[in-house]
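To: structure subgroup
Subject: Chain for Friday's discussion

All,

I'm putting the inputs and outputs inline so they're searchable in the archive.
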Amino acid sequence: MATKSENIVSYTAEEAAKLVGKTDWARVAAQTPEEIERHWREDEDEFGPFDWTTVMAGSPPPKSKAAIHMRIDRAVLDHFRKSGRGYQTRINAVLAAYVRHAEGR
């Protein structure tokens, strides 16, 4: 059984072996690091390319977050939720990256 400590989930080796991913690791292993980097840079979504190097996911200092009620488009929420647990942290990371960019940091 998976155990949870805050945002960290642990699995036994047997549980991890049962997890099914969608990555074609044989294809990835056959690519050079340069090819992987090129594919990563060329990857676009419906909003165009996004520079993920500016996103910093992690825990903020204690009490630096505010609880709010916010309405967002269903498609935006669905996009983040489909990647699993921690979607609110990912939304916050994207917004924080936008603020850093807007402030020229």
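Points worth raising on Friday:
Residues 87-102 form the longest helix (16 residues).
The chain has a mean pLDDT of 78.

D.
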